[in-house]
């Protein structure tokens, strides 16, 4: 049996009596008590997540931009100002998603990528394979000496400024999907990105692993609530954000996962997987579902892999949960083309076919329900 990996905050989670689970080979907190309270803290105030299981990779070299232009489906040519970030899928030659990631630009020869925990080894091997095949001559450096804390919610930025006042000047005017590096903090050099996975404002903070415990404790003293994987999942689902391994993977095109907006086919740029995407296009539609109530009650909860029956053929739920904000059962589903928002479909839950309304994603952003 393979021993689970630990983040630098593992002892802190255990001291807080978190319920720990195996998540992609890492021993991670699923909650610290009430998952619902953690979810609501992020929607109304501020919560924090240990995301140090994800991997920071620094990519440097004169041809770093050329590398990412070829490796990613989105166009890093958009990154022209220091600190700007881009969300993208990285595809295999068949057009399937190797991973979804965020790439940060600091100079033409200096980029930083944050990749998913479960795919980190695969991603780094793929980076190195492409680098060797095409002769970019890059230095590809996984940074396991760094930790990551996501501080999310309407009051999240203020809480970070309270514990690290010297970061305020550099980050107060930071736009979404931009980052800044600040070295004069009590916690060493921080990279603070105005990014997140919850549908709320906030920061994702990359800092030395040796300082992350002190940073976490300081935030907790300011009233930031520790949150686990359970709340992270309900928050991202409400916000219409995909999870790698559920909503897309090596066998799923981004065009079939609601991620066409991350694929740049407008520029005459060669990138891995482009020929297949252009030849095959999208084969299905990615939608949101809300389970309809009968006699004031829902007959179950939408979950991954449940069959979705439509007038255009069958589809499947990829992610589903009960939404604490909406008090409804919600899901993402991959369904046949022709299914549209406003349609009613039926989901097979145990031995029943229950009606669900098709809606446009996302369900919730910045604390507001966006679907009727």
Strand content: 25-35%
What is the CATH superfamily classification of the largest domain? Probable tRNA modification gtpase trme, domain 1
What is the radius of gyration? 21 Å
In the predicted model, the low-confidence regions spanning at least 5 consecutive residues are none
In short:
The chain contains 9 helices and 21 strands. It has helices at 10-15, 35-44, 64-71, 120-134, 156-163, 168-171, 212-221, 229-238, 274-280, and strands at 19-23, 26-31, 47-50, 55-60, 85-91, 97-107, 110-115, 139-142, 146-152, 179-182, 190-193, 202-208, 225-226, 284-291, 307-310, 313-323, 328-336, 344-349, 352-359, 364-365, 368-369. It has a 6-stranded mixed β-sheet.
Describe the structure.
This protein folds into two domains: 1-241, Gyrase A, domain 2; 283-369, Elongation Factor Tu (Ef-tu), domain 3 (Beta Barrel), CATH 2.40.30.110. It is built from nine helices and 21 strands. It has helices spanning 10-15, 35-44, 64-71, 120-134, 156-163, 168-171, 212-221, 229-238, 274-280, and strands spanning 19-23, 26-31, 47-50, 55-60, 85-91, 97-107, 110-115, 139-142, 146-152, 179-182, 190-193, 202-208, 225-226, 284-291, 307-310, 313-323, 328-336, 344-349, 352-359, 364-365, 368-369. A hairpin with a 7-residue loop joins strand 10 (179-182) and strand 11. Helix 2 (35-44) crosses helix 8 (229-238). The mean pLDDT is 97.
């Amino acid at each position: 049996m393979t021993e689970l990996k630990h983040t630098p905050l593992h002892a802190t989670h255990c001291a807080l009596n978190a319920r720990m689970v195996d998540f992609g080979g890492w021993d991670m907190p699923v909650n610290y008590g009430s998952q619902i309270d953690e979810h609501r803290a992020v929607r109304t105030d501020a919560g924090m997540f240990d995301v140090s299981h994800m991997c920071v990779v620094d990519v440097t070299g004169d041809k770093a931009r050329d590398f990412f232009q070829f490796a990613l489906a989105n166009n890093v040519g958009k990154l022209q100002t220091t600190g700007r970030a881009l969300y993208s899928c990285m595809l295999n030659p068949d057009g399937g998603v190797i991973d979804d990631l965020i790439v940060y630009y600091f100079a033409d020869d200096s980029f930083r990528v944050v990749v998913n925990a479960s795919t980190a080894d695969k991603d780094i091997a793929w980076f190195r394979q492409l680098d060797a095949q095409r002769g970019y001559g890059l230095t590809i450096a996984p940074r396991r000496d760094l930790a990551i804390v996501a501080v999310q919610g309407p009051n999240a930025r203020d809480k970070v400024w309270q514990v690290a006042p010297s970061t305020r000047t550099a980050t107060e005017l930071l736009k979404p999907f931009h980052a800044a590096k600040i070295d004069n903090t009590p916690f060493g050099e921080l990279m603070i990105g105005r990014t997140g996975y919850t549908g709320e404002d906030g920061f994702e903070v990359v800092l030395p692993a040796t300082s992350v415990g002190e940073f976490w404790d300081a935030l907790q003293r300011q009233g930031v609530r520790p949150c686990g994987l359970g709340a992270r999942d309900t928050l991202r689902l409400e916000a219409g954000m995909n999870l790698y391994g559920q909503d897309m993977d090596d066998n799923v095109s981004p065009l079939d996962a609601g991620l066409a907006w991350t694929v740049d086919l407008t520029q005459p740029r060669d990138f891995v997987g482009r020929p297949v995407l252009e030849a095959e296009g999208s084969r299905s539609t990615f939608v949101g579902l809300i389970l309809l109530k009968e006699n004031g009650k829902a007959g179950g909860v939408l979950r991954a892999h449940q069959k979705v029956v439509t007038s255009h053929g069958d589809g499947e739920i990829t992610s589903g949960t009960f939404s604490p904000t909406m008090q409804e059962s919600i899901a993402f589903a991959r369904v046949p083309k022709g299914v549209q928002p406003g349609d009613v479909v039926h989901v097979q839950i145990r031995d029943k076919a229950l009606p669900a309304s098709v809606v446009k994603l996302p369900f919730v952003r910045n604390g507001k329900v966006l679907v009727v």
